[in-house]
Amino acid sequence: MADDLNQGVNAVFIKRVNKVEGGHHGGAWKIAYADFVTAMMAFFLLLWLLNAVTQEQLEGISNYFAPATTAPSTSGSGGVLGGQTISAEGAEVSARAQMTPSLELPPPKTGLGGEDQSSTQDQNAEAASEEQLRQAEEQQFEKAQQQLQQAIHENPDSARLEQSLLVDNTPEGLRIQIIDQEGLAMFLSGSPTPLPHAIELLVLVKDVIVKMPQKISISGYTDALKFGAGAAYTNWELSSDRANASRRVLTSRGLPEDRINRVEGRAATELLDIEDPASPRNRRLSIVLLRGTGVSSKAEEAREPPR
Q1: Could you tell me if 167 and 205 are in contact, meaning their C-beta atoms sit under 8 angstroms apart?
Q2: Which long-range contacts (CB under 8 A, 24 or more apart) does 156-164 make?
Q3: Taking the CB of residue 202, how many other CB atoms lie within 10 A of it?
Q4: N or C terminus: which one in the chain shows less Cβ crowding within 10 Å?
Q5: Rounded distance, CA 255 to CA 210, Å?
Protein backbone atom coordinates (compact mmCIF):
# COMPACT_ATOMS: atom_id res chain seq x y z
CA MET A 1 0.00 0.00 0.00
CA ALA A 2 2.82 2.36 0.87
CA ASP A 3 4.58 1.52 -2.37
CA ASP A 4 1.53 2.41 -4.36
CA LEU A 5 1.33 5.77 -2.67
CA ASN A 6 4.98 6.44 -3.35
CA GLN A 7 4.55 5.61 -7.00
CA GLY A 8 1.59 7.99 -7.25
CA VAL A 9 3.60 10.74 -5.71
CA ASN A 10 6.50 10.30 -8.11
CA ALA A 11 4.26 10.39 -11.23
CA VAL A 12 5.02 13.26 -13.70
CA PHE A 13 2.15 14.98 -15.56
CA ILE A 14 2.88 16.79 -18.87
CA LYS A 15 0.42 19.50 -20.07
CA ARG A 16 0.64 20.62 -23.69
CA VAL A 17 -0.69 24.05 -24.68
CA ASN A 18 -1.24 24.90 -28.37
CA LYS A 19 -0.33 28.58 -29.05
CA VAL A 20 -1.68 30.46 -32.03
CA GLU A 21 0.83 33.00 -33.34
CA GLY A 22 -0.58 36.49 -33.86
CA GLY A 23 -4.27 35.71 -33.51
CA HIS A 24 -6.46 38.71 -34.11
CA HIS A 25 -3.47 40.93 -33.33
CA GLY A 26 -1.52 39.79 -36.42
CA GLY A 27 -0.91 41.97 -39.56
CA ALA A 28 -1.49 39.47 -42.34
CA TRP A 29 -5.05 40.68 -42.95
CA LYS A 30 -3.82 44.24 -43.48
CA ILE A 31 -1.63 43.16 -46.36
CA ALA A 32 -4.51 41.27 -47.92
CA TYR A 33 -6.81 44.28 -47.53
CA ALA A 34 -4.24 46.58 -49.10
CA ASP A 35 -3.94 44.26 -52.08
CA PHE A 36 -7.71 44.21 -52.39
CA VAL A 37 -7.97 48.04 -52.30
CA THR A 38 -5.17 48.35 -54.87
CA ALA A 39 -6.90 45.87 -57.16
CA MET A 40 -10.22 47.72 -56.84
CA MET A 41 -8.55 51.05 -57.58
CA ALA A 42 -6.92 49.58 -60.68
CA PHE A 43 -10.28 48.10 -61.70
CA PHE A 44 -12.14 51.39 -61.43
CA LEU A 45 -9.31 53.19 -63.21
CA LEU A 46 -9.63 50.70 -66.05
CA LEU A 47 -13.39 51.28 -66.19
CA TRP A 48 -12.84 55.05 -66.36
CA LEU A 49 -10.31 54.69 -69.15
CA LEU A 50 -12.61 52.41 -71.13
CA ASN A 51 -15.42 54.92 -70.77
CA ALA A 52 -13.18 57.80 -71.94
CA VAL A 53 -12.26 56.32 -75.35
CA THR A 54 -14.40 55.80 -78.43
CA GLN A 55 -15.61 52.50 -79.82
CA GLU A 56 -13.09 52.65 -82.65
CA GLN A 57 -10.24 53.14 -80.19
CA LEU A 58 -11.49 50.17 -78.14
CA GLU A 59 -11.40 48.03 -81.26
CA GLY A 60 -7.82 49.11 -81.93
CA ILE A 61 -6.80 48.16 -78.39
CA SER A 62 -8.62 44.84 -78.69
CA ASN A 63 -6.81 44.02 -81.94
CA TYR A 64 -3.48 44.84 -80.36
CA PHE A 65 -3.94 42.34 -77.51
CA ALA A 66 -5.73 39.67 -79.58
CA PRO A 67 -3.76 36.48 -80.48
CA ALA A 68 -2.18 36.44 -83.93
CA THR A 69 -4.42 33.57 -85.06
CA THR A 70 -7.68 35.40 -84.32
CA ALA A 71 -6.78 39.02 -84.94
CA PRO A 72 -8.22 40.39 -88.20
CA SER A 73 -4.78 41.82 -89.06
CA THR A 74 -1.41 40.06 -89.22
CA SER A 75 0.37 43.24 -88.34
CA GLY A 76 -0.52 43.28 -84.66
CA SER A 77 -3.02 46.14 -84.75
CA GLY A 78 -3.95 49.20 -86.70
CA GLY A 79 -3.36 52.90 -86.53
CA VAL A 80 -0.67 54.28 -84.30
CA LEU A 81 -0.09 50.77 -82.88
CA GLY A 82 0.05 49.17 -86.33
CA GLY A 83 3.00 46.79 -86.73
CA GLN A 84 5.10 46.28 -89.84
CA THR A 85 6.07 43.09 -91.61
CA ILE A 86 9.45 42.50 -93.12
CA SER A 87 9.37 41.27 -96.73
CA ALA A 88 11.70 41.13 -99.66
CA GLU A 89 10.48 44.57 -100.74
CA GLY A 90 11.16 46.05 -97.31
CA ALA A 91 8.91 47.18 -94.54
CA GLU A 92 5.27 47.46 -95.53
CA VAL A 93 2.34 48.69 -93.46
CA SER A 94 -0.55 46.26 -93.56
CA ALA A 95 -3.80 47.26 -95.24
CA ARG A 96 -5.62 46.84 -91.92
CA ALA A 97 -3.25 49.28 -90.29
CA GLN A 98 -4.18 51.86 -92.90
CA MET A 99 -7.91 51.28 -92.54
CA THR A 100 -8.15 51.15 -88.76
CA PRO A 101 -8.60 54.57 -87.18
CA SER A 102 -5.59 55.60 -85.12
CA LEU A 103 -5.77 55.80 -81.36
CA GLU A 104 -5.28 59.54 -81.04
CA LEU A 105 -6.18 61.86 -78.21
CA PRO A 106 -8.68 64.60 -79.01
CA PRO A 107 -7.07 67.94 -79.79
CA PRO A 108 -6.60 70.07 -76.69
CA LYS A 109 -8.78 73.07 -76.17
CA THR A 110 -7.22 76.29 -77.30
CA GLY A 111 -5.60 77.88 -74.29
CA LEU A 112 -2.72 80.04 -75.44
CA GLY A 113 -3.31 79.66 -79.19
CA GLY A 114 -6.11 79.24 -81.68
CA GLU A 115 -9.05 81.40 -80.71
CA ASP A 116 -7.07 83.07 -77.92
CA GLN A 117 -4.37 84.15 -80.36
CA SER A 118 -7.06 85.43 -82.72
CA SER A 119 -8.72 87.28 -79.85
CA THR A 120 -5.40 88.81 -78.82
CA GLN A 121 -4.74 89.92 -82.38
CA ASP A 122 -8.23 91.49 -82.55
CA GLN A 123 -7.61 93.31 -79.27
CA ASN A 124 -4.25 94.57 -80.49
CA ALA A 125 -5.80 95.75 -83.75
CA GLU A 126 -8.61 97.47 -81.85
CA ALA A 127 -6.13 99.15 -79.49
CA ALA A 128 -4.05 100.32 -82.47
CA SER A 129 -7.19 101.69 -84.14
CA GLU A 130 -8.22 103.54 -80.97
CA GLU A 131 -4.74 105.01 -80.64
CA GLN A 132 -4.88 106.12 -84.27
CA LEU A 133 -8.24 107.81 -83.66
CA ARG A 134 -6.93 109.48 -80.51
CA GLN A 135 -3.92 110.89 -82.34
CA ALA A 136 -6.13 112.10 -85.20
CA GLU A 137 -8.44 113.83 -82.70
CA GLU A 138 -5.49 115.52 -81.00
CA GLN A 139 -4.38 116.82 -84.38
CA GLN A 140 -7.91 118.15 -84.97
CA PHE A 141 -7.87 119.97 -81.62
CA GLU A 142 -4.47 121.51 -82.31
CA LYS A 143 -5.62 122.64 -85.76
CA ALA A 144 -8.84 124.16 -84.35
CA GLN A 145 -6.90 126.02 -81.67
CA GLN A 146 -4.53 127.45 -84.28
CA GLN A 147 -7.43 128.49 -86.50
CA LEU A 148 -9.15 130.31 -83.64
CA GLN A 149 -6.01 132.17 -82.68
CA GLN A 150 -5.29 133.03 -86.32
CA ALA A 151 -8.85 134.25 -86.93
CA ILE A 152 -8.82 136.61 -83.98
CA HIS A 153 -5.37 137.94 -84.88
CA GLU A 154 -6.24 138.60 -88.52
CA ASN A 155 -9.45 140.49 -87.75
CA PRO A 156 -8.63 144.01 -86.51
CA ASP A 157 -12.13 144.44 -85.10
CA SER A 158 -11.66 141.34 -82.95
CA ALA A 159 -8.20 142.25 -81.61
CA ARG A 160 -9.71 143.80 -78.46
CA LEU A 161 -11.52 140.52 -77.80
CA GLU A 162 -8.35 138.44 -77.75
CA GLN A 163 -8.23 138.39 -73.94
CA SER A 164 -11.86 137.29 -73.87
CA LEU A 165 -11.16 134.07 -75.77
CA LEU A 166 -9.43 131.27 -73.85
CA VAL A 167 -8.74 127.92 -75.56
CA ASP A 168 -7.22 124.90 -73.81
CA ASN A 169 -7.09 121.12 -74.20
CA THR A 170 -8.69 119.29 -71.27
CA PRO A 171 -9.42 115.62 -70.49
CA GLU A 172 -13.04 116.30 -71.48
CA GLY A 173 -12.04 117.77 -74.84
CA LEU A 174 -11.07 121.05 -76.50
CA ARG A 175 -12.51 123.81 -74.32
CA ILE A 176 -13.26 127.25 -75.76
CA GLN A 177 -14.20 129.88 -73.15
CA ILE A 178 -15.66 133.32 -73.81
CA ILE A 179 -14.82 135.39 -70.75
CA ASP A 180 -15.92 138.77 -69.43
CA GLN A 181 -13.18 141.36 -68.95
CA GLU A 182 -13.15 144.39 -66.71
CA GLY A 183 -15.26 146.89 -68.61
CA LEU A 184 -16.05 144.44 -71.41
CA ALA A 185 -18.96 142.17 -70.54
CA MET A 186 -20.41 139.61 -72.93
CA PHE A 187 -24.03 139.94 -71.72
CA LEU A 188 -26.22 142.67 -70.34
CA SER A 189 -25.88 142.84 -66.57
CA GLY A 190 -28.11 140.22 -64.95
CA SER A 191 -29.58 139.32 -68.35
CA PRO A 192 -29.20 136.42 -70.81
CA THR A 193 -29.10 138.82 -73.78
CA PRO A 194 -25.69 138.65 -75.53
CA LEU A 195 -23.99 141.87 -76.60
CA PRO A 196 -22.88 142.37 -80.24
CA HIS A 197 -19.21 141.61 -79.56
CA ALA A 198 -20.25 138.38 -77.79
CA ILE A 199 -22.21 137.36 -80.89
CA GLU A 200 -19.13 138.22 -82.96
CA LEU A 201 -17.00 135.87 -80.88
CA LEU A 202 -19.63 133.12 -81.02
CA VAL A 203 -19.76 133.36 -84.82
CA LEU A 204 -15.96 133.18 -84.99
CA VAL A 205 -16.03 130.04 -82.83
CA LYS A 206 -18.83 128.55 -84.92
CA ASP A 207 -16.85 128.98 -88.15
CA VAL A 208 -14.13 126.74 -86.69
CA ILE A 209 -16.08 124.11 -84.80
CA VAL A 210 -18.63 123.54 -87.57
CA LYS A 211 -15.86 121.76 -89.49
CA MET A 212 -15.17 119.41 -86.57
CA PRO A 213 -16.98 116.08 -86.08
CA GLN A 214 -17.26 116.13 -82.26
CA LYS A 215 -20.37 116.72 -80.20
CA ILE A 216 -20.53 119.97 -78.25
CA SER A 217 -21.44 120.89 -74.69
CA ILE A 218 -22.29 124.46 -73.73
CA SER A 219 -22.06 125.61 -70.11
CA GLY A 220 -22.80 128.99 -68.56
CA TYR A 221 -21.01 130.34 -65.45
CA THR A 222 -21.50 133.38 -63.25
CA ASP A 223 -19.55 135.11 -60.52
CA ALA A 224 -20.34 134.56 -56.84
CA LEU A 225 -22.39 137.74 -56.46
CA LYS A 226 -25.98 136.85 -55.70
CA PHE A 227 -29.27 138.50 -56.57
CA GLY A 228 -31.18 140.27 -53.85
CA ALA A 229 -32.61 138.35 -50.94
CA GLY A 230 -35.76 136.46 -51.85
CA ALA A 231 -35.20 136.87 -55.59
CA ALA A 232 -36.86 134.16 -57.69
CA TYR A 233 -34.26 134.56 -60.41
CA THR A 234 -30.81 133.34 -59.31
CA ASN A 235 -27.39 132.66 -60.79
CA TRP A 236 -28.58 129.16 -61.71
CA GLU A 237 -31.32 130.48 -63.98
CA LEU A 238 -29.02 133.20 -65.34
CA SER A 239 -26.19 130.79 -66.25
CA SER A 240 -28.66 128.35 -67.86
CA ASP A 241 -30.37 131.12 -69.88
CA ARG A 242 -27.02 132.46 -71.11
CA ALA A 243 -25.94 128.98 -72.22
CA ASN A 244 -29.22 128.53 -74.10
CA ALA A 245 -28.90 132.00 -75.68
CA SER A 246 -25.44 131.02 -76.93
CA ARG A 247 -26.84 127.78 -78.33
CA ARG A 248 -29.43 129.74 -80.30
CA VAL A 249 -26.75 132.02 -81.73
CA LEU A 250 -24.60 129.06 -82.84
CA THR A 251 -27.45 127.11 -84.42
CA SER A 252 -28.92 130.19 -86.13
CA ARG A 253 -25.52 130.75 -87.75
CA GLY A 254 -25.29 127.25 -89.22
CA LEU A 255 -24.25 124.83 -86.48
CA PRO A 256 -26.40 121.65 -86.80
CA GLU A 257 -28.73 121.00 -83.87
CA ASP A 258 -27.61 117.37 -83.62
CA ARG A 259 -24.09 118.54 -82.77
CA ILE A 260 -25.33 119.83 -79.40
CA ASN A 261 -24.80 117.22 -76.70
CA ARG A 262 -25.91 119.21 -73.65
CA VAL A 263 -26.60 122.75 -72.47
CA GLU A 264 -26.30 123.51 -68.77
CA GLY A 265 -25.98 126.28 -66.21
CA ARG A 266 -23.26 125.90 -63.57
CA ALA A 267 -23.75 129.21 -61.70
CA ALA A 268 -20.65 129.90 -59.53
CA THR A 269 -19.73 126.25 -58.90
CA GLU A 270 -16.40 126.45 -60.81
CA LEU A 271 -14.78 129.83 -60.42
CA LEU A 272 -12.06 130.74 -62.89
CA ASP A 273 -10.58 133.26 -60.46
CA ILE A 274 -10.81 131.51 -57.10
CA GLU A 275 -9.03 134.30 -55.22
CA ASP A 276 -11.65 136.83 -56.31
CA PRO A 277 -15.14 135.23 -56.49
CA ALA A 278 -16.60 138.53 -57.73
CA SER A 279 -14.11 138.84 -60.60
CA PRO A 280 -15.73 139.41 -64.03
CA ARG A 281 -13.54 136.57 -65.39
CA ASN A 282 -15.80 134.16 -63.52
CA ARG A 283 -18.68 135.19 -65.81
CA ARG A 284 -18.10 133.10 -68.91
CA LEU A 285 -19.34 130.60 -71.46
CA SER A 286 -17.64 127.26 -71.98
CA ILE A 287 -17.98 125.45 -75.33
CA VAL A 288 -16.33 122.02 -75.29
CA LEU A 289 -15.67 119.73 -78.24
CA LEU A 290 -16.23 116.44 -76.43
CA ARG A 291 -13.41 113.98 -76.77
CA GLY A 292 -14.24 110.63 -78.39
CA THR A 293 -17.55 111.74 -79.93
CA GLY A 294 -16.27 112.23 -83.49
CA VAL A 295 -14.38 110.18 -86.08
CA SER A 296 -11.57 111.75 -88.05
CA SER A 297 -11.97 111.61 -91.80
CA LYS A 298 -8.25 110.92 -92.04
CA ALA A 299 -8.61 107.97 -89.70
CA GLU A 300 -11.49 106.66 -91.78
CA GLU A 301 -9.38 106.91 -94.93
CA ALA A 302 -6.53 105.11 -93.20
CA ARG A 303 -8.84 102.25 -92.25
CA GLU A 304 -10.26 101.87 -95.74
CA PRO A 305 -8.58 99.11 -97.82
CA PRO A 306 -6.61 100.27 -100.84
CA ARG A 307 -8.59 100.21 -104.09
Answers
A1: no
A2: 157/200, 158/200, 158/201, 158/204, 160/184, 161/197, 161/200, 161/201, 164/201
A3: 25
A4: C
A5: 6
